[in-house]
Design brief:
heterotrimer, A mainly alpha (240), B mainly alpha (369), C mainly alpha (256), A: 240 residues, C: 256 residues, 11 helices, 1% strand
C-alpha cells in the first residue's frame, strides 16, 4: 500500500500536534452536515418501505430478514439453523473480540500498511468481503422459496427442482473432518514455523481454528454446490 | 478551502431543509384543492356578473370572499366499526379520499344510484372502491382500488366477496342492530341488484325442481293477470293500482311506483338474481348456490313487511259494496275461486272438462289440488 | 461599521455575556485550547491531536459519523415516539398517519429508517478502518472488544426496530430471525440438546424474545421497549466507555 511510506514518515514526527479547534472540530462539523444532507435528500426521494399490515396467515415469500442478517440467512441453505443462526454469529463475535489478543504483531499501528501484516489483513478482508458477498446474494439473488435467481432474472415460482441431496456416510465424514482440521492445524505450523512460534501455542491454535472454521463454511458451501452434499456428519442430536 | 466547504455544505443543508419545508407546505393533495377552489371561484364570479338581484349578489359575494381565501386542509370521514389486528385492520377506519376528490357535487352526481342509500359521510368510499383510505398519495391510496363498476364486478370472484361487503355495510351503518341481511339486495357496486326476469331463470330451471316451478308458474306468476281483470282494478286509477302492484308484481319500487315484472315470479321471493345469474353464467355453480341459499327473504311472505298480512284487501270492500253489478263479498272471494267452484259443480253434474268454461277469463289458471 | 464593532465590544463586556462565554473568540492559542476545554460537548476531544489524525483519509470520520447518526436517530426516534403507539391494533395505522398526516412525519419516519441502515454501514466500515490501521493493537485491545459489542448492539437496535411498523416486511423478517433463535443449542426448543434442560416452545429463548409462542402483541411491546429504552441505554453506556477509552488509551491511534 502506498500509505506505508506515509506511515513511516508520520512515525518520524509523531509528536507533531495541532489544535482540535478548529482543525478537527471543523471537519467533524462538515461531515455531520453532509451526513444530514444526504439523509434528508435520500429520505425525500426514497420512502421507507411499508408493506401491508402484518398478517400471520399470509407468509411473505421469500421472507427475508433485515439485509445485515441476510448473510446468516444465506448460510441457512448450507447449514442447519442452529449452526447458521446461532453458532456462526457467536463464533464471529467471539472471533472478532479475540483479534487484538491473538494478533501480536506490533507493526502497522496507526496507518494503512499491508506489507507488514499481510496475514492479518488478508484474513480480515476475506472475512469482511465474504460476509458482504453472502448478503448481496441473499438480498438480490434469492427469490421465492429461497431459490436462486440472477439479478436480471424475474422471480417466478417456476424454477427447476433442485437436485436431490445426499449426505456423506459418517465414517467418511469423521475422517474428512479429522483430515481437514488435523492437517489444517499441522501444515501451517510446519510450513510457517517462524510465524507459529511467534504466536505461541495457545494463540496459534485459536487463530488457526477460527481461520479453519471460517474456511470451513466456504468448503461446505463448495461441497453443496458441487457435489450436493447435505451433511458431513450425522448424529442423533445434531447434523453438520 | 475548509471555509468554502463549510459554506457549501451549509447551503446544501439549507436547500435540503427547504425541500422538506416545501413538502410540508405543499403536499401532493393541495394541488387538487387549489384547482377546485379556483374553479369554484371562477364560477361564482361569472354568476355574479350575470345576476342583478340584490340578495343573490350579496350571497354570492360572501361566497366569493370565502373562496378567495380557501382553507386547504385534509378532509376525512371517520367511520364506524371495530378495528383491530384480529379484524386485519389498524386504527379507527378513516377515509381521506375527499381530500383530493373534493368536489362533492360532482361526486353526488356520479353516484346518483347509491348516494341516497349510502351517504358518503356514513359509509365512506373504500367499502365499495377498495384502496387505502388512510393514505394521501395516489400510489398508496389507489393501491388495490376498484375505480369503476367494471373493476368492481371483476372483483367478484366468490360469493364471499359480496358477503364481506354486506357485512361492512352493516358495520358502517348508523342503525342499531343493522345486519348484513339488510343489504342482501345490493350487488357488488353497492347499487340495487338487477331483476333478471323469470325468463332468465326459466332457461335452466324449467324441468329442474319441477313441482315447485310448475306450481308457481301456473298460480302466482299469473296473479297479475288475475287482478288485471278485477273490476276494481280496471276502474281504479294509478294510485289505487299501486296498492295492487305492491304484492302482485315482482321488484316493486315504492318510491317510483314501478315494478320489474308482472306477477309474483321467481325473484319476488328469491330476491333479485343479478349476482346469482352472474355466477351461474360463469359456471361457478357453487358460488351461485351460496347466493341462492342466503337470498330468499321468506319474511317477504308475512310479518310486518310482507304481503300476507291480514286485511290487505280491505281497500277493495268499498268498491264492491258500492257497485251494484258485483257480489258484495267478491273482494275476499277472488274470481278464480268462483270459477273453480263452478267447475267443480259442473263436474259433479257430469259436464265435460274440455269445454267447461267458454266465458273463462283469458288467464290460464287452473286450480291444482 | 465602527458603531457595530463598538456595540459588539460593549455587549461582550457585559457581566451577563461573560457569565455565559468564558473566553474571547480572538484567534489565540489560549482561546483555541479554551474552546475545547470549556465546552462540555467539545471536551470529548483533547486540546491537541496528532496532525496525521485530522487527515480525512485516515479515519474517514467513520466513528464520529456513527455517533452522529446515533444522535440523529435519538432525536428522530424520540419525536416518533410522540406519535407511535406499540399496539397491534393501531401501530400500522400510526405509520400511515405519520407518513401522510403528521407534519414532517414522513421526514421523521423515513430518515429514521435510512439513518438506521446508515449506522449499520458506518459502524461496519469504522471497524474495517480500525482494523486496517491496526488501531486495536496494544494498548487499545479492550476498546476493540467494546467496539465489537457496540457493533452487535447496533445490529440489535436495527433489528428490534424492524418489527415496529407491524407490516408484512417486519413481521416475517422477525419471524425468520427469531426462528433461528429457536434453534439455539440447549436453549432453543428446536435446537440440539433441547431436552437436556426440558426446553419447550413455551420456555425457550425464542419465547423470551417474543413474549409468547408466536409474534403478537407482547412481541411488539418487547421490540419497542428494547428498541427505545433497553438497547439505547446499554449502547449509550458502552459508548461512554468506548470514547473514554479512546482518550485514556493514548488518544487516537497513531504510529508507535
Amino acid at each position: 500500500m502506498s500509505n506505508h511510506a506515509e506511515a513511516e514518515v508520520a512515525n518520524n514526527n509523531k509528536t507533531e500536534k495541532v489544535f482540535s479547534w478548529p482543525n478537527l472540530v471543523a471537519k467533524e462539523f462538515i461531515a455531520a452536515i453532509l451526513c444530514t444532507v444526504i439523509l434528508l435528500v435520500y429520505s425525500y426521494y426514497v420512502d421507507a418501505p411499508l408493506r401491508e399490515l402484518a398478517n400471520p396467515g399470509e407468509p411473505e415469500n421469500p421472507a427475508k430478514a433485515p439485509w445485515y442478517f441476510l448473510g446468516l440467512q444465506e448460510i441457512l441453505v448450507y447449514f442447519d439453523p442452529w449452526i447458521a443462526g446461532v453458532v456462526v454469529p457467536s463464533i464471529i463475535i467471539v472471533g472478532l473480540m479475540a483479534i487484538p489478543y491473538i494478533d501480536v504483531n506490533p507493526k502497522g499501528n496507526g496507518g494503512y500498511c499491508f506489507r507488514e501484516r499481510k496475514f492479518a489483513i488478508t484474513v480480515f478482508l476475506f472475512g469482511f468481503i465474504f460476509w458482504y458477498v453472502l448478503i448481496i446474494v441473499g438480498t438480490y439473488m434469492r427469490g421465492p422459496f429461497w431459490a436462486f435467481f440472477w439479478p436480471w432474472e424475474t422471480w417466478s415460482f417456476d424454477f427447476p427442482t433442485p437436485p436431490p441431496l445426499m449426505s456423506l456416510p459418517n465414517w467418511l465424514g469423521i475422517f474428512a473432518l479429522l483430515i481437514y482440521f488435523g492437517l489444517g492445524m499441522l501444515i501451517p505450523a510446519v510450513a510457517f514455523w517462524k510465524f507459529a512460534k511467534q504466536l505461541g501455542f495457545i494463540r496459534y491454535n485459536i487463530t488457526m481454528s477460527l481461520l479453519l472454521l471460517m474456511m470451513g463454511v466456504l468448503v461446505k458451501i463448495a461441497l453443496r454446490l458441487m457435489f450436493n452434499i447435505k451433511y458431513i456428519l450425522q448424529t442423533p442430536w445434531f447434523n453438520i | 478551502m475548509k471555509k468554502k466547504l463549510f459554506l457549501l455544505s451549509s447551503i446544501l443543508l439549507l436547500v435540503s431543509s427547504l425541500l422538506w419545508v416545501k413538502d410540508m407546505l405543499e403536499p401532493e393533495w393541495k394541488q387538487y384543492q387549489v384547482e377546485y377552489y379556483e374553479q369554484q371561484r371562477k364560477a361564482v364570479e361569472k354568476k355574479l356578473q350575470t345576476t342583478s338581484d340584490e340578495k343573490t349578489v350579496a350571497d354570492l359575494e360572501t361566497k366569493l370572499a370565502k373562496l378567495q381565501k380557501p382553507k386547504y386542509e385534509i378532509k376525512q370521514i371517520l367511520l364506524k366499526g371495530d378495528y383491530g389486528w384480529a379484524q386485519q385492520s389498524n386504527g379507527q377506519k378513516t377515509d381521506r379520499c375527499m381530500t383530493c376528490h373534493i368536489d362533492e357535487a360532482k361526486l353526488t352526481a356520479s353516484h346518483e344510484t347509491v348516494v341516497k342509500e349510502f351517504p358518503f359521510d356514513i359509509y365512506g368510499c373504500t367499502v365499495c372502491h377498495g384502496g387505502s383510505g388512510r393514505s394521501l398519495d395516489e400510489e398508496h391510496a389507489h393501491h388495490g382500488i376498484f375505480k369503476h363498476k367494471r373493476a368492481m364486478r371483476q372483483r367478484l370472484d366468490h360469493a364471499d366477496d359480496l358477503f364481506d361487503m354486506w357485512n361492512e355495510f352493516a358495520t358502517l351503518s348508523l342503525e342499531e342492530g343493522a345486519e348484513w341481511a339488510s343489504y342482501k339486495n345490493h350487488t357488488i357496486t353497492g347499487e340495487k341488484a338487477i331483476y333478471m326476469g323469470s325468463g332468465k331463470c326459466m332457461r335452466c330451471h324449467t324441468g329442474l325442481t319441477a313441482p315447485h316451478v310448475e306450481r308457481w308458474k301456473r298460480v302466482k306468476f299469473e296473479s297479475f293477470n288475475v287482478i288485471k281483470e278485477a273490476p276494481d282494478y280496471i276502474k281504479g286509477d294509478e294510485d289505487y293500482r299501486e296498492k295492487c302492484y305492491e304484492c302482485h308484481t315482482t321488484g316493486y319500487n315504492k318510491e317510483t311506483g314501478t315494478y320489474e315484472e308482472e306477477g309474483i315470479t321467481c325473484e319476488a321471493c328469491h330476491g333479485p338474481g343479478e349476482v346469482y345469474a352472474f355466477f351461474m353464467d360463469r359456471g361457478q355453480a357453487t358460488e351461485g348456490q351460496k347466493i341462492a341459499k342466503i337470498t330468499p327473504a321468506y319474511n317477504k311472505c308475512g310479518g310486518t313487511e310482507g304481503c300476507h298480512r291480514s286485511r290487505r284487501h280491505e281497500m277493495r270492500v268499498k268498491f264492491f259494496r258500492d257497485s251494484k253489478k258485483h257480489d258484495d263479498y267478491e273482494w275476499f272471494k277472488p274470481k278464480y275461486k268462483r270459477i273453480v267452484t263452478e267447475a267443480l259443480e259442473e263436474k259433479k253434474s257430469g259436464g265435460d272438462e274440455e269445454g267447461y268454461d267458454p266465458t273463462a277469463p283469458k288467464h290460464r289458471i287452473r286450480f291444482v289440488r | 461599521m465602527n458603531l457595530i464593532l463598538f456595540f459588539i465590544r460593549k455587549l461582550t463586556e457585559t457581566e451577563m455575556w461573560k457569565s455565559v462565554f468564558r473566553h474571547g473568540y480572538t484567534d489565540t492559542p489560549r482561546n483555541r485550547a479554551l474552546q475545547t476545554i470549556s465546552n462540555v460537548w467539545l471536551h470529548l476531544h483533547p486540546v491537541k491531536v496528532p496532525k496525521h489524525a485530522v487527515k480525512i483519509t485516515y479515519t474517514w470520520c467513520l466513528g464520529g459519523l456513527t455517533f452522529f447518526i446515533f444522535l440523529f436517530l435519538t432525536v428522530t426516534g424520540v419525536l416518533l415516539m410522540f406519535y407511535y403507539v406499540p399496539d397491534v391494533n393501531r401501530a400500522y395505522a400510526d405509520m400511515i398517519d405519520l407518513m401522510y398526516v403528521v407534519p414532517l412525519g414522513r421526514l421523521l419516519r423515513t430518515s429514521h429508517r435510512w439513518a438506521g441502515h446508515a449506522m449499520v454501514i458506518t459502524v461496519c466500515f469504522h471497524m474495517l478502518r480500525v482494523f486496517l490501521t491496526g488501531s486495536y493493537k496494544a494498548p487499545r485491545q479492550f476498546n476493540w472488544v467494546l467496539g465489537v459489542l457496540l457493533l452487535v448492539l447496533t445490529f440489535l437496535l436495527s433489528f428490534t426496530g424492524y418489527l415496529l411498523p407491524w407490516d408484512q416486511l417486519g413481521y416475517w423478517a422477525i419471524m425468520v430471525g427469531t426462528n433461528m433463535g429457536a434453534a439455539t443449542p440447549v436453549m432453543g426448543y428446536q435446537g440440539p440438546f433441547a431436552d437436556l434442560l426440558g426446553v419447550k416452545i413455551n420456555n425457550d429463548v425464542r419465547f423470551a424474545l417474543l413474549g409468547g409462542t408466536q409474534i403478537d402483541a407482547p412481541s411488539l411491546l418487547r421490540a419497542y421497549v428494547w428498541h427505545c429504552i433497553g438497547i439505547p441505554i446499554i449502547a449509550g453506556a458502552l459508548m461512554i466507555l468506548h470514547f473514554w477509552r479512546v482518550r485514556k488509551d493514548g488518544g487516537i491511534s497513531g504510529p508507535l
